[in-house]
Structure prediction request, 284 residues.
Amino acid sequence: MTEFRELWTSFCELDYRRYVISALIVFLSSFLLVELSLLVVEGVSIPSKEMCGKLAYLIANMSVFFLLLAFLVACSYRVHPLCIRALIKTVIFYVIPMTALQLLYASASDMWLSALEHGVYMVGLTMLIWSVYSLLGSLSMSFDLRKIAVLLIFASMFFNVVLFNEIIENSGDSRPRVINAVLYSNPAIATSFAYDRDILHGQVLYERSVIGQYYYYKYPSVWLSALYHLIAAVLIGMLSVVLTMLKPRREKDEEAEEDEPDKPASTEEEEQGEASAETTSASG
Prediction:
């Protein structure tokens, strides 16, 4: 119960007014950066309808790619092992402003629903990253090792359509399930499907992934992908809470085990003292 009280206390101590102002600053800064880049590259400040759709898709890809970096920036050495504050900071400071920026350009090209779907997906992905990071922290893994481990897991999710080629080819009758698992766990696939893009038949992945070349596949629903991420995050988070609650008990048991070998030694000394006392009294 102490862990839950600490989580609730940290949640109530957040200065949400400052968070909202900071989120607005992030949104305006990102908007100015996009407009400045558009002015330098294209020479226009008001993009066309087609250009707005491309910008929204580009922002979606960049935001999901740098999501892990935003989460790690929100973390510090002093956060609670379950780092609930880092999760809230990432959602408020990064996910919400990036989703609002997508909506700004996507609504101009009648793709506001795509931006909304991608925002929901990013919330689910953020919770999944948080749960894995918290699980590693509950296992007493150091801060640097946690960052490296989460980075490797996140990178494997992005490139699994290429890294899992041999696994997919050798999966036999379970190949459709393996392909679905690969597609549902890939953030780039979810982003492309949210904006009606077929990247598996694109120039980059078609010659590198066996899914697009040889096997039947169906792009996963963005809502289902977000739901699966949320379910996985809840299960992993519950395991992290249990391990964090058991950690003080494990430490007490280890300390007790370390003290136990000293007890027989003291008992032997007392027995020797009693024996010597009896010998002295008998001789007297």
Summary: Residues 222-259 form the longest helix (38 residues). The radius of gyration is 27 Å. Residues 65 and 176 are 27 Å apart (CA to CA).
